[in-house]
Amino acid sequence: MCQRYGMSLLAVLVVIGCGGGQPQDAAAKTDRTASPEPAMHLAQAPAQAQPASGGGSAAVNVTVQFEGAAPARTKIKMDADPVCRQQPAAAMESEEVVVNSNGTLKNVFVYVKDGATGTFPTPSTPATLEQSGCWYRPHVFGLQVNQPLDIVNSDATLHNINAKPTTNTPFNIAQPVKGMKTTKKFAKPEVMVKFKCNVHPWMSAYAAVLTHPFFGVSDEQGAAAVIGLPAGTYTLEAWHETYGTQTQTVTVADGETKSVAFTFTAQ
Amino acid sequence: MATAIATFCLLIAGALVTSTDSGLAVPDWPLSYGMWFPPLVGGILYEHGHRMIAAAVGLMILGLAVWLGFVERRRWVRYLGYSALGAVVLQGLLGGMTVLFLLPPQVSIAHATLGPAVFCLVVCLAQVTAPSWTAQPTRDEEVRWPSLRALGLVLATLAALQLVLGAVLRHTGGGLAWHLTGAACLLAAWGWLMQRIRQLQGVRHLLCASVQRLGFLLVLQMVLGGLSWWYRAPVGVVTVHVGMGALVLAQAVLLVMVSEQAAS
Ligand SMILES: [Cu+2]
Fold first, then answer.
1. d(Cα A86, Cα A101) in Å, to the nearest integer?
2. B17 and B63: one domain?
3. CB within 8 Å: B42 and A23
């Protein structure tokens, strides 16, 4: 018996090796629903702290267009936590790619990458990252170096906030009780810092830490505004969590408002 | 024996923590959210569940070591028990460090490697304290080089190395080629050992079953490894793959022990 065993085991391996098919995309197996309308959300993101004025009078209005077929958004199952499941609108959908009804792309972070000279005061008003309905609000936001960031738990469940910067210091904090608030600061500029909750693996958020206030996030109309710019030539970068980054150069004079369009294409 | 099974459950629970990316779902250690028993929602279920099973296994190994200390006559078996206890304590501390230092790869890899080692120690303890162990088998003239024992040792070392490489792949995403090479080496070593055992008469009945089990585990393990790669690491398959890795190591070490016994 010992004689044949080895050969048959090897034969099994060979058969399996030959029968290995194409790699399959695990993501394709997740439950997806095609939704032509923009997904319903629990509530609007809390009013984001407006960037402090940069002292100038020029502005750039950015529109982020989207080309191609919008990928279907993954429905999030919150069964793992009874508190999350009880949310009024449990029909949360992934925010990885949100294409607005007017064919624009939401949650694109637009900022001045190069050209902002001088130093800008650190705002004392904190930026806020709220956990509400087992969801980060806002999903994408910006703040300045050393500007306080209030991380708030508005849920009657436990969250951990796992910040994963690469140049700043990472942290992982616990907020087991509703109403808890933790204030954090990032000491160095970094685009982007990812936030994750490991209790609820679907929760993610991105924060850009900049030395200046020239940034905005595209909204439900695909619009983002960079305001308070001094006259000059700037490199604008548009960042999207799935589609990466694009840059454009724009020159503005004092008091001038220019329009710039970025276009991201479906992959 | 019960401790061995419990330790294996602990390994699976630990593997699930990484598979589900729940390692940091509980930011504090040794307490969980400042509590002994936090609500087991979402990722906390995996992380805190792993901690609770770990505590239970730790106590079982403590009990085992104390019991051996009192009743075991063979000194080396007592020391084996103490080293299992020491290893499980160290493993607990490493686990705490993964949480407190936000999963640095070195600590995670050490934690993922020491786990199967503890399992292996407990399996060996179960084997040598079993009533069947003391029975002396027939002698066998073993003169050829390399000896069965040496081959078995090579196999066990390769299995251990392969566990480390697997952990590196899992926690850094790098070193796939090494992990595949390890698999090929393991299979080759196993084939060699199989070949040698076939040529022996006396110990064959003893070793044959052991080697066959090992071969079966190896092939299953390669299939699972292939599946995890093709399907981009589904939680269930990878978790079983990690657990099986520990079984391969334990089986290889048992093989060494049996061949040792056969040669004595
Ligand atoms: Cu959470």
1. 28
2. yes
3. no
* Cβ–Cβ contact A28 with B under 8 A: no
Q: Assess whether pLDDT exceeds 50 at residue A228.
A: yes
Query: pLDDT tens for residues A47-89?
Result: 444 555 678 899 999 999 999 999 988 888 888 888 888 766 5
State how far Cα B248 lies from the chain centre. 7
What are residue A149's DSSP bridge partners?
A127, A184
Domain count, chain B: 2
Q: Is A160 touching B (CB cutoff 8 A)?
A: yes
What's residue A7's pLDDT?
59
* A173 exposure class (CB count in 10 Å sphere: 0-12, 13-18, 19+): middle
- 3-class SS at B31? coil
A with B: how many residue pairs have Cβ under 8 Å apart?
106
Q: If you measure from the C-alpha of residue B229 to the centroid of ligand 1, how many angstroms do you get, rounded to a whole number?
A: 29
pLDDT confidence of residue A35: 36
CA–CA separation, B107 and B204 (whole Å): 42
Contacts of A231 (CB under 8 A, 6+ apart): A56, A58, A252, A253, A254, A256
Sign of CA dihedral B25, B30, B33, B35: positive
Q: Does A200 touch chain B (CB under 8 A)?
A: yes
In a domain, A35, yes or no: no
* A193, β-bridge pairs: A207
pLDDT at A23: 40
What residue numbers bound the domain in which B218 lies?
A: 148-263
Interchain pair B33, A158: CB under 8 A: yes
Surface-to-core class of residue A178, CB atoms within 10 Å of its CB (0-12 exposed, 13-18 middle, 19+ buried): middle
| Integer Cα distance of A67 and A47 in angstroms | 29
Domain extent at residue A134: 2-24+51-265
CATH number for A256:
2.60.40.420
- Same domain for B117 and B8: yes
CA-to-CA distance for A66 and A242, rounded, in angstroms?
13
Higher pLDDT, B176 or B259: B176
**pLDDT given for residue A106 in this prediction:** 96
> CA of B29: which chain A residue's CA is closest?
A174
B140 lies in some domain: no
E strands present in chain A: 58-67, 109-114, 127-131, 136-137, 140-144, 149-153, 159-164, 171-175, 181-184, 190-196, 204-210, 215-217, 223-229, 232-240, 244-252, 257-265
Tell me the per-residue pLDDT of B61-98, one tens digit each, with 9 for 90 and over: 999 999 999 998 889 999 999 999 999 999 999 999 99
Predicted confidence band at B148 (pLDDT cuts at 50, 70, 90)? confident
Q: Angle at CA B98, nearest 5°, toward B92 and B103?
A: 160
Q: A-chain residues within 8 Å CB-CB of B218? A: 9
Do B121 and B221 sit in the same domain of this protein? no
- B142: in domain: no
